[in-house]
Amino acid sequence: MNRTLVIGCALLAPIVALAAVSLAWTPYGPADTTGGRLTPPGAAHLLGTDRLGRDLLTLVMIGARTALTTGVLAVAISALIGVAGGLAAGFAGRLADDVLAAALDILIAFPALILALLVVAAVRPSLFATVLAIGLAMSAVLARLTRALVKGVLAQDYITASRASGTSWPRIVTGHVLPNIWPALSVNLALQLGLAVLAEASLAYLGLGAPQPDISWGRLLREAQATVFTSPISLIAPGLLLAMLVAGANLAAQGLRLAADPALRVTR
Amino acid sequence: MTYLEVSGLTVRTAGDRTLVRDVSFALDRGDRLGLIGASGAGKTLIALSILGLLPRGLRAEGRIRLDGTDVLGAPERRLNRLRGRAVTAVFQESLAALDPLMRLGAQVAQPLRHRQGLRGKALRAAVVAALESVRLADPERMARAYPHEVSGGQRQRVAIAMALACEPALLIADEPTSSLDTTVQAEVLGLLDRLIGRTGAGLLFIGHDLAVVAGVARRLLVLDAGQAVESGPVAGVLSAPAHPRTQELVGTARRLRGALERMSP
């Protein structure tokens, strides 16, 4: 464990804990409005209540769950499609590779958020649609990265040497290609986790995320806008957690890279 | 029947530039052929053609028969059965020829596991034995090391252990000592010589340094700009070089030797 990885995990840990606890227990129900509107933080409501009278800590905890679920699922979709596509392109003949590369460039030229907006607009807004949209939008970037990494590894002498000793293609992929692209890939996946959470919050903020009764930090931020001066905590709480999650994911990504590369481990 | 027969081998790029033109030679088990020529003469392309590993975009024509199989145009599966057992290779740059993220032991284990089906304790013992056979001190520690943690000479020994692990009938050594300093080079050459002698494998030794190639090979094939310009037993080629390129190679080697002798008391 290096320091970067530790700090990244330390930032992520409280959010994971909040999300985990919310599965079993929240201070109030998410629809409970008995606390009164805009109650300041106190013993009954640690973070106060929002303008509808809901307990903010409860909302933020459930929001953490939404953020993590969206992030992890979106990255999983992105990884599945992106890595598979990138591997295929990396191994493909020249023509197929050119076609794939051009298609990816067009996809990447679209801002990811616009792409996600299109997907959400095409299907009914739901948490699943959000996840799918973000995952698809990110998979193009990942596919292009994977393709470049695979091509780089395949050009290495140790691939030729390994093949000369009779290693078959599937074993080359699992034994040499994947381990050697994994450091760069894992960093990107962790970065994408942060980006996916941000994208989910952005979609929800724009009103295109999962509809009620799903709760997302993005929609909490949107709702807190109106009361930002009377009750800044309702903006600060979800905003701060969002920043922590994104920063934590980025630092963990950097830490992972340092941990995965034996050469860096020694020279550092 | 000869184990390896290369006849009329021609390698072209997609743009129809000819890189190797009409090269023919034969090599049997126990035989040692030196392929010599300047950089860019097409030596490595010939090696890759025999292995069926030419980069995409290059086309080989002619005929390569290896252990009764036509290599050119053979499907990948059949080629893969030949690689490692019928023929294998050691390359020039040992740092690049070993996977930087894999422990050395695991890399030597790879062909042993896939080719000979060794597992667990037997596999570990075979890896240690392979590392011992290339005279590496403390093979247990070496097996746990990563490529960047050991010296160039040690890496090249590991690469040789990996290539010879499954006792191939034919070894292609493509400038295996060019990136090593002179003393280590002599050690590695001596090792290669002993190991090949013990297993009775055939050796195709590729190099640009006449002194090195002539020390290992019994016959020479001189390449110039993709064409074989001269061939014959080492002694014959050295004493009476016919082609200007060969004369140049021999002349350079002699001048170097003469200079060294004048300097020594």
Written description of the protein model:
The complex is a heterodimer of chains A (268) and B (265). Chain A is mainly α. Helices cover 75% and strands 0% of the residues of chain A. Chain A is built from ten helices and no strands. Chain A is elongated. Chain A starts with a helix and ends with a helix. The mean pLDDT of chain A is 88. By secondary structure, chain B is an alpha/beta fold. Chain B is globular and about 55 Å long. The mean pLDDT of chain B is 90. Chain A binds chain B through residues 93-94, 156-158, 160-169, 171, 175-176, 179-180, 183, 261-263, 266, and chain B through 48, 51, 53, 56-57, 76, 80-85, 87-91, 93, 96-102, 107, 110-111, 114-115, 146, 148-149, 159, 162-163, 165-166, 172.
Mean pLDDT of chain B, nearest integer?
A: 90
Strand content of chain B: 15-25%
The Rg value of chain A, from CA coordinates, equals 22 Å
Quaternary structure classification: heterodimer
Class inferred from helices and paired strands of chain B: alpha/beta
SSE class of chain A: mainly alpha
**Biggest β-sheet of chain A: count, sense, barrel?**
none
* CATH uppermost class of chain A: Mainly Alpha
Instruction: Work out the radius of gyration of chain B.
Output: 19 Å
User: So how many helices of chain B?
Assistant: 10
Task: Give a count of the beta strands of chain A, DSSP E runs of length 2 or more.
Answer: 0
Low-confidence stretches of chain A: none
Note the overall shape of chain A. Answer: elongated
Element-by-element helix/strand order of chain A: HHHHHHHHHH
Beta-strand residue percentage of chain A: under 5%
Poorly predicted runs of chain B are none
For CATH, the homologous superfamily of chain A is named as MetI-like
Instruction: Give helix and strand order of chain B, one letter per element, not per position.
Output: EEEHEEHEHHHHEHEHEEHH
CATH fold-type name of chain A: MetI-like fold
